[in-house]
Amino acid sequence: MADSEMRAQAAGGTVDAGGTVDAVIAGTGAGGAPLLARLARAGLKVVALEAGKRWDPANDFATDERAQAKLFWNDERLSAGADPTPFGNNNSGIGVGGSTLHYTAYTPRAQPDDLCLHTQFGAGCDWPLAYEDLEPYYDELEAFLGVSGPSPYPWGPPRRTSYPLAPLPLNGAAQLMQRACAKMGLRTSPAANAALSAPYHQPGVGWRRACTNRGFCQAGCSTGAKASMDVTFIPLALAHGAEVRAECFVTQIELDKQGRVSGVVYTRDGHEERQRCRTLFLCAGAVETPRLLLLNGLANSSGQVGRNFMAHTGVQVWGRFEEDVRPYKGIPGALISEDTHRPQKAGPAWGDADFAGGYLLQSIGVMPVTYASQTARGRGLWGEALKAHMRGYNHTAGINILGDCLPSPDNFLELSDEKDARGLPKPRVHFTAGENEKKMTAHADALMRAIWAEAGGQDLWSFPRSAHTIGTCRMGRDARTAVVDPDGRSFDVPNLYISDNSTFPSALSANPALTIMALSLRTSDRFLERAQRGED
Q1: CA pair distance 276, 299, nearest whole angstrom
Q2: Which domains, ranges and CATH numbers included, belong to the chain?
Q3: pLDDT for 472-499, tens place per residue?
Q4: Is the dihedral of CA 43, 49, 52, 53 positive or negative?
């Protein structure tokens, strides 16, 4: 560190962290890490800033459910509305690798009609992209990550490429669900999971070990079998010369006289540092990305920053079975059905599907502490009653849905008057489920109860919940109604891009991770194409 920088730090000033880089990427999860690798491979000088720590999977990820808390974003986020969204282990992570450190690696693709919800139903919002824009990136990601899945896959358009690895074994809940659905005429399939069913050589990274079916995906994968960003795109980016700075929390975005981003200010070890850059990519998720823009008063001429917050409908149905299920074993989401993707087409056989969009069904595994917590909250069991219920834990199985959520201006993020430990306003998120979400949840609840009854389940009960944080910086073609264009570029600040699930115009009836990564690669390719043409 230069003498002037040491004096600035001693005086409590902001220290320049080095010369100007081509790009700063804020966040190293599914939106940031693929971008980082792509830009570094193209020869750009890129720096990624990550609020969390850098972990060593073999030493830091214990087979201990209580140890997983360090991977969750635990800064307080305030929740409001009739259906306040819980934050933390449900939908956000921290550390080099972001939320993929604790995601369960469920990687279904969006289907083509997911992207044109308004056209199909007159509700929600269409994407400014078509499936064909994402398909080549889905193909690339499944091959690079080593996704394990069935071939052929029963739903959606025919695949141009097969999954590179065979499906992972079905756990106890998946086998129960598979047998019951077959009797009811519901198609099921082993799910696509970004966890290796066999050793796999990942291009540019090397060999990764196969999944041991340990079941602790949310506690971090200690073997590297799960395709979290810390063992896939991050090492690839580092090999191409990228720099990743951990425990760096971005607080300010600086502009030059032309209104372009000139750098960012972040805190590290209690001190402020500045990194100058030619382009900024915000990849901090659907809470921290809009929060940072609102803190800095940027990219909001549309008034859409923070608006249209969405959370997937995710009701779970649990049951008790004679079979020894052992719900902690195996990949948590082993089985899928997308027969309910558009249940309106099924007619009255599965109930009245009087709602827009649809949902997928998946079997679920669960760790004991998580299940005990949900039981206490969902059923009001405490003390001896909870102990008695938990004695049947090894005979417990669950199903849940991942359902669409319509965007609404009444669901939004704002800055609160409360301050966090850094002196910054905490985000407050307002969320109320609409009639569409309520009807979808009721439809799914009835169907899942029927499945578990067919499987011989007893003592069935439902746990209402939502999953993921989505929206708040939607993409579109009109600067009056969107924050970024279809390439993720801000309409207001030309060298500011967003690459995370905040740009989703609608929630999709599929888990978001694979689509976030696909958009990340697409954004990086469009950015590089503009640079090659000499455009600003």
Answers
A1: 19
A2: 3-59+86-532 (3.50.50.60)
A3: 999 999 999 999 999 999 999 999 999 9
A4: positive
